[in-house]
Design brief:
alpha+beta, five-stranded antiparallel beta sheet, 1 helix, 5 strands, 20% helix, 36% strand
Amino acid sequence: MLFPNLPTKTLGGSFFWDTLDRKNGWKLQKNLITEHYRILDPENVRQAWSPDESSIWRTFRKFTLVSQD
């Protein structure tokens, strides 16, 4: 389940974040402390977040497929 998201500019995850995947400039990251997930666009703006790993992976695939077109 994804939570409501207000697109927010980030620093790109230099601290407290593990990057699980990168594709077309997009990043899927996991927080090392809270263990929640987020998706950053190529400009490091958070586009989605969730505590649920399977839903965030599905969403990451959708974002990265759309960005290829």
